[in-house]
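Class, discuss our next protein.
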Amino acid sequence: MAMSAVARETVFALRRQIAKIEGTLPERLEAPARGAPVDAAGSDITPETNIVRRGLAVAPQDAFLHTGIKRLDAALGGGLPKAALSEIHGLETRDAGAVAGFALSLTSLILREKPGLPVLWIGTAEIFREAGFPYARGLHALFGIAPEQLLFSEAPKLLDALWIAEEAARMTAFAAVILEIRGSPRLLDLTATRRLHARAQSAGRPVLLLRQAGEAEPTAAPVRFIVSAAPAASRETVAGPLAGSIGRPAFTVDIGKSRTALPGQFTLEWNPDEHAFAERTENSVAVVPVPLRGADPAPASGAVLAFAAVGSPAAISPTAGDQPSRQQRPAHRSPRRAG
């Protein structure tokens, strides 16, 4: 069951207080001073800023994968850790597509820094039957990922999938490793996720743990995203938003867990042309997809009857009900219109 807003705020406040006591809270999350250098994308650059982590270790800025959303990166303490286990959680089965799409969006950003390297996607036969496989043409068109760069490993059991993930996570031949799990199995406990996290840290590669329709249980992942589909906004044209159209794919992303203990909810759109995220602005209008054939072509209930109703003239007359009337005959014999 989803946590209420009040309970979540309380949990994040307690986590932030614990981080402050341990000395692991990044204090420099404020906007840089005026005159700070700006990169080509318009984001502020503060080379001297380092994020303090557990054990008083210092993590440089290149240790994080920047999503391109300044508020999200700041809430995560610099971005998504590259050499770590990160969890992407879908609360319900119907969120499987959004979870996979968000994972592929992050993979597209990862492959910018690791071009040419493949990505291994691991899952059981159950998860691939339920959620399916990514469409090869869509990989290249939406995410810029060549189909041959995405390798799949279908394991018969969860124990085999965990073993494959641990062995793959220690290899530097992969740009990233994706492990997709359904439900809340007992084998995926804190010990198993600690091993995955340790292998990711050792190899310096990200491991994405996709959780489908499971409870938010304790894991060793420093970051947990809760992802679901968001309504698409209208397409933008030169004349303005195109009414009734469907724009870019969008995700509702909640920070369920982070080292900074900063909560946040974001509506992110994925730009398939630039292969980058964009945050949904307040004036964006969300729309519901309209039927491709326009209005529902089905006639109103009771407009055409296969048999005459009891008490009607057709039912009383022995000859009137033998053949349909001229007005009804086209409805029986004419083919249905495709649009």
In short: DSSP finds nine helices and 15 strands in the chain. Residues 105 and 241 are 24 Å apart (CA to CA).
